[in-house]
Amino acid sequence: MQKQQRVVIENVSPQINGGALSIKRVVGQLVHISADILADGHDLMAASILFKAQKDKKWSEVRMSAGQNDDWFGTIKVEKQGVYEYKIEAWVDYALNWQYGIGRKIADGQRVNSELAEGVLYVKALQKKASTSEKVYLKKLSELFKNEDAYDEAVNEAVSDKLKVIFEKYPEKFLANTSEPLPIYVDRKKALFSTWYEFFPRSAASKEGQHGTFKDCIPLLKRVSDMGFDTLYFPPVHPIGEVNRKGKNNTTTALDGDVGSCWGIGSKNGGHKDIHPELGSLDDFKELVAKAKEQDIEIAMDYALQAAPDHPWVKDHPSWFKWRPDGTVQYAENPPKKYQDILPIYFESEDFKGLWKECLDVLFFWIDCGINIFRVDNPHTKPFYFWNWIMNEVKKKHPDIIFLAEAFTRPKIMQQLAKQGYTQSYTYFSWRDNKHELIGYVEELTKTEQSEYMRPNFWPNTPDINPFHLQGANESKHIQRYVLAATLSSNIGIYGPVFEQMLSDALPGKEEYLNSEKFQIQKHNWEAENWLIKLISGINKARKDHEALQQTNNIKFCHIDNDQLMAFYKWNDEKTSEVFVVISLDHHHAQRGTVQLPIHDLGIGPNDQLKIRDILPDVHYTWNGEWNFVELHPNMPFHIFEIIK
Amino acid sequence: MQKQQRVVIENVSPQINGGALSIKRVVGQLVHISADILADGHDLMAASILFKAQKDKKWSEVRMSAGQNDDWFGTIKVEKQGVYEYKIEAWVDYALNWQYGIGRKIADGQRVNSELAEGVLYVKALQKKASTSEKVYLKKLSELFKNEDAYDEAVNEAVSDKLKVIFEKYPEKFLANTSEPLPIYVDRKKALFSTWYEFFPRSAASKEGQHGTFKDCIPLLKRVSDMGFDTLYFPPVHPIGEVNRKGKNNTTTALDGDVGSCWGIGSKNGGHKDIHPELGSLDDFKELVAKAKEQDIEIAMDYALQAAPDHPWVKDHPSWFKWRPDGTVQYAENPPKKYQDILPIYFESEDFKGLWKECLDVLFFWIDCGINIFRVDNPHTKPFYFWNWIMNEVKKKHPDIIFLAEAFTRPKIMQQLAKQGYTQSYTYFSWRDNKHELIGYVEELTKTEQSEYMRPNFWPNTPDINPFHLQGANESKHIQRYVLAATLSSNIGIYGPVFEQMLSDALPGKEEYLNSEKFQIQKHNWEAENWLIKLISGINKARKDHEALQQTNNIKFCHIDNDQLMAFYKWNDEKTSEVFVVISLDHHHAQRGTVQLPIHDLGIGPNDQLKIRDILPDVHYTWNGEWNFVELHPNMPFHIFEIIK
Questions:
Q1: Model pTM?
Q2: What is the 3-state secondary structure (H, E, C) of A576-644?
Q3: pLDDT tens across A118-133, in order?
Q4: How many whole angstroms separate alpha carbon B574 and alpha carbon B548?
Q5: Contact B416 A38 (CB under 8 A)
Q6: CA triplet A634, A639, A641: central angle to 5 degrees?
Q7: pLDDT above 80 (res A1)
Q8: How far is B553 from chain A, CA to nearest CA, in Å?
Q9: Nearest CB to A356 within list B2, B108, B380
Q10: Which of B108, B121, B347 is the closest to A325 by Cβ?
Q11: Angle, CA of B399, B400 and B405, to the nearest 5°
Q12: Which residue of chain A is at minimal alpha-carbon distance from B70?
């Protein structure tokens, strides 16, 4: 192929798998773009980022600027939900090269009549594009460059900044080259900033021993909202299987009255599009969703693709399950373990298209009931390409939908789910406890390619994870874990009633709760007050008030000479919100240290003063210079400082 | 798109720009391939590299093995010249998963009748592919697995290694996924191992003041061959322009008898397809090429796309040059400098296709005259896509052709030329002098992506580069520079007569030779002998005898506790040739140090003995353990040790 262009555009970043998958942003976020841009020789070049929402016809253009090593940089802002595309256009700027060359020759004392004659062509080419006043100027120049009697004036104008500005404004883009478009998926803001609370609706009854209902949940909404949570996630609310139902503490035989695991979905009462009768009716559910919205709470639904042996799918679509030659069905298993209350879906089914369609219909059904957030159970045990397809199908019609991937498995599997389209991802945060681990993990999430596609959601605990460091831990430890999650990550969640009451009895030697709500109803004290709850509410308010805490990637860890203290600086894209956070990891003793402020990022000198406000409690300080002393005590093991400018 | 596959194949390496450009190898070389390969869940997987010469129909297959982090590895060997393709095929191995699962359940004491019944299906599926004896065994198994009376025997066979081997040998590859094919360009071996000598044929006359001819060059071939060089590169041999011809020392006015720069190509005597009359005839040239071949020397021709003002192209194809509106032509320039003996080619020409074709015809013309190697002058001032096209066109017909890029410019420009297809590249070696610089540069060339597409050619000097460190330098320095080039890089060259006589007079303050042969004829002593020449010959012989020195990427620098000493280990792909090199960078004093052997790579223990042979002079030693003492003196500032096993 004979291609006359001179410009090579390479290493365009960010991109995922050559543009096969999308990088992610939310509305109003910036995308910092870079590329290697080269041409032969030493000519001056120019480059632009062209970008648009996929549905738009017109490309917007932002000029790039050159670095030191043929690397170019530019930044765009995405404003609408849905798919964006961007590409890079680059060209040799012949007019600017002419001006640069003639300038060097004039400085060298050479006569440049030939070059001025050439300049007339560049000037004339601009006249079509220029404004009226510019046109007058350009017309004057084209006369001047031909007028030997006005040589000195011509030379002055030829090298003028005025002409340079016009050349830069209306580039000819002769033989320009353009890179392949790359996709950006833009979500609503909540994809990046959300505060989740999880409880089991069946434990919502006010009377001990009663099965909670959706109606019981309604009075609890105010508490959740007052604490500053905006997302209320319920484990599955569908009919629970009766065949092979699990007993308390995951025993294989259910006793009379045992309620079973709500992840064993499906019974004679229906399947994934139905409501467990003991929780109420579909109308009750819709009412709860509506009442929650009134208090700015979205209900997140569990999407768990598996079936109890008595799920209607098993009879209606036997090919969606795996049957052995002897007619027995394949239970969920991790050999030698078997989970006889659950059948996995058989995605190798010949009727996989029928299966996929039904899975999609389930989502559409609940979206129609007012659900916009799905927490997806064990997505890593279903094919990646299935997720890519189903999430794209949903988002095409409903760009507001948020999918949270509940996969705790190998790193590349978790990354792949995010690449394939998950809006948010559970993380290893639950197990990262010391300063070294925490900083290493957050830097991996925010300073590598993962920052472009994986939005972490930090959970100190879940019904499945009662981490060793919380078992028997005191209040200070719980505060630390919450403030770490809430300031390191803009998406967070807690398995609420258990966390805030600091309940941590575990199965011996395991990170699982004793008498887990997964298998039985519990009675919680929904009126409880304590210092931890007060601080959770305060921290959540700080997150709402400070945009710096509503994003995850703009973080810089700062030096502090104490392994029990962590310090970091966060800012929003526009730097109109900046916070500085110090957290103690010692829940027994006071810790002191001297912290180094990121003065370069703060735009202050090494001896300047800095005004800060401790958000909890509301106290103003003035810090002096780069190094400052901090001291933290177990009862209040953190500072969140707002930087005041 | 609904895609039922479960396997994701990502980050396939090596590749250049998503396969748009080729990685490079020579015949017989290995390609180490890796990829991230994932499926949902925890199933056992398998993967193969499929590869073939582009013209072949059948893919060869090599199994990959898994690393620790869903990363897979495999190695192939390329045997033919031309384009190869490789891709990765990966699948979930259902049969092996069945065997793994049944094994865990049996160990757990579970009854596995259902699983055995399932096993019959896996065993039967193999029968078509298996060998006769395997078929007998498989048939036995399918009976056995159904026979409840032989349960114990069935269980033993089900988990047997014998069955596992058969499963692995004949994978079902159900729902396998395959990555996109990626190209490898395979050159002849000389692309990776070549030893260049450069002189100006016009300086070959035996009598002072005479213009040398091709006939004068013939008697010099033996000397070049005896010293161990296999490539003889001549600056341009075409008619030299007479208009604006350069005088001695690059003065702008030629005096009578001045021969001009041979890079100012073209005159009334012809252009790029003609021979400068004072060098002889085309037949003389062909004779020289043939005589050289008899002594295993290939003549490398200079390919310099530019024209003197009196080049025939200027009249015949004025559109291939840039003309100003006033009718003056654009000289080569780097403002404010002008080079009035040279017109650059105008690649923006509307007749670029005619131009490109003529450039290609020039190459075909000289290839027909017996030339297989082109040293391309200033390729970075011509478009990248032009080089890609013209080199592909040539290689399609003539896969033996080698192109050396003479570009000394910004790093990414040099890399891009290599990516676009240059066989070899001049490098910054000429200016890298201390240990830190040398190691850093060689690691960049051999341990980054560059190692896949850029084959360095190390030149201690060229007619254009008389580096400061060689100006006035003693013999030891010259030896060091040669041995560094010759052992660090498998492609090397010298501007011979000047280097071996240690001539280094320079224009004041510049890295250019005084009285440069670029602008005048010089008289060399072609009979000279000295210690440097002896060592050059010895080093060249060592390179011929040891495959470890015939490649560049297999290098590992070793710790040595002296900044004036460098030590490194090199090996061929098969590790049948291994050398250990120590070089002193001090050309005035003796240097001593203790060097750490790479015992892991050598396959010896920390206290084992190692037999080595110093190649120059031929002396055997036995080293003991990991750390060994070395001492080097300025007159013999290196050891090249052959490792004897």
A1: 0.95
A2: CCEEEEEEECCCCCCEEEEEECCHHHHCCCCCCEEEEEECCCCEEEEEECCEEEEEEECCECEEEEEEE
A3: 999 999 999 889 999 9
A4: 10
A5: yes
A6: 175
A7: no
A8: 24
A9: B2
A10: B121
A11: 100
A12: A412
